[in-house]
C-alpha cells in the first residue's frame, strides 16, 4: 500500500507541475519551488519529489543549475527528424574538401538580417568556402555570424574549423539546439558561375540554414549554392 501511495503521489506531482508549466504558472526561465516546499505541498516524501523532478529534467521540462535550483524550460518540442546528410556536412568539420575563399566583415543583406533577426546592414563576419575540388566544385557556401559570436567562436579566423560549427559555438557558451532549412532555386551571379564552373543560365539550388537556440533565437546562418543536378537533396524523414 505504501508503494501504491508513493506511485500515486509521484504521478500527481509530475502531472501537476507539467500543468503549471503549460499554464505559465511557472513561466519559462523561472525557478521551481524548492524540494522542501514541494514536499510540504504534496505531503510526499523527499525521495518521491526528487524522483518526479528527475523525470521532468530527463524529459526536458526543466534543468538543474548548481547554486540556483531547477529552471523551467517549458513543454518539450516534439521529436524532430534526424539531420539530413547535406545539413550534417555543412555543420561538420572543415576537411580537405573545403577551401576557404575569404573570411572577413560584411554588412547584413535584407535577407540575412531577417534570417538572423538583426537590423539591416548589421555587421557580420562572412566565412566563404568552396566544397569539392577546383575542377568540379559541388557547393559554394557562406557562413554568416554576428561579429562578437564569430570572434569568440573562431568563425572569424582564416583557418579550418576541425570540429565544425556546433562545437565552436558551444565553446563560446552558445547553446545551439536545432536548425531550420529553407530551399529555393535561382540562377547564379557572375562570381558564382565562375567559381562553380556553370553557365549564367544554369540553375542553382539555394539552401539557407539557420542554427537556433532552444528558444528559437538565431545564432548563425549558412547560405549554400548547390548544382541543381546533385542527388544530395534526397532524404527520408519518418512520419511519426
Q: Keywords, please?
A:
28% strand, alpha+beta, 240 residues, Chorismate lyase, 8 helices, two-stranded antiparallel sheet, 8 strands, 2 domains, Arc Repressor Mutant, subunit A, elongated
Commentary on this structure:
The chain is α+β, with helices and mostly antiparallel strands and 240 residues long. It has two domains: 71 residues, Orthogonal Bundle (Arc Repressor Mutant, subunit A); 149 residues, Chorismate lyase, CATH 3.40.1410. Helix content is 32%, strand content 28%. The protein contains eight helices and eight strands; from the N terminus they run αααββαβαββααβαββ. The chain has a six-stranded antiparallel beta sheet with strand order 3-4-5-8-7-6. Strands 1-2 form a two-stranded antiparallel ribbon. α1 crosses α3. It is elongated and about 75 Å long. 24% of the residues are buried. The mean pLDDT is 89.
Give me the secondary-structure topology:
Layout: H1 2-22, H2 35-42, H3 46-58, E1 62-65, E2 69-72, H4 85-91, E3 98-107, H5 110-115, E4 123-131, E5 139-146, H6 147-153, H7 165-171, E6 176-186, H8 190-196, E7 204-213, E8 218-227
Antiparallel strand pairs: 1-2, 3-4, 4-5, 5-8, 6-7, 7-8
Helix pairs in contact: 1-3
- Rg is 23 Å
Give the CATH topology of the largest domain: Chorismate lyase
Query: At the fourth CATH level, what is the homologous superfamily of the largest domain?
Result: Chorismate lyase-like
CATH architecture classification name of the largest domain: 3-Layer(aba) Sandwich
Order of helices and strands: HHHEEHEHEEHHEHEE
Number of helical elements: 8
Low-confidence stretches: none
Helix amount: 25-40%
Mean pLDDT: 89
SSE class: alpha+beta
Strand content: 25-35%
Distance between the termini: 38 Å
What's the CATH class label of the largest domain?
A: Alpha Beta
The largest pleated sheet is described as: 6 strands, antiparallel
Strand arrangement, major sheet: 3-4-5-8-7-6
Total domains: 2
In total, the number of strands is: 8
Judging from the principal axes of the Cα atoms, what is the shape? elongated
